[in-house]
Amino acid sequence: MKEDVIEQPLFSKKCGHACLSMVTGDDIFHIAKTLQNFNELSLEKEIMWYLNHKGYKVQMIRKFEINSEEIPNNSIVRIEDENESGHFVLKQNNLFKDPNVGIVKSYIKRKRITHYLIIES
Q: What is the pLDDT of residues 83-92, one digit of tens each?
């Protein structure tokens, strides 16, 4: 896994692509082309498929209330805002690598974690 934060392109919905890039080292455009999806990704579909395709073992965790402290490192996390729009970040070294804003220590309460994907190489 890369140590740097990979930024999603400005005004794009490529946060999932950026998280995959941080995990695999693959270029965002290459990921989009491989998935044949240049817009929003699904954690359960495209992201899991891509990581499995690259040889990673993954485990999906979904439950009603998720506390950010319980999420293990090396997880792609889906965060939902009160308007129900989703966003993906990578938790690594007990920090969230957010492709939209950079390094985040924690999120405010109106941001809800809906599910996450634990990644093993």
A: 778 999 999 9
pLDDT at 65 over 90: no
Which residues, 6 or more positions from 24, have their beta carbon under 8 angstroms from its beta carbon? 31, 50, 51, 54, 56
76: tokens are 């792609």
Collapsed DSSP state (helix, strand, coil) of residue 23: helix
pTM of the model: 0.92
CB 49, CB 64: distance < 8 Å: no
Structural domains in the chain plus CATH codes: 15-120 (3.90.70.10)
d(CA 86, CA 88): 7
User: What is the rounded distance in angstroms from the CA atom of residue 72 to the CA atom of residue 38?
Assistant: 28
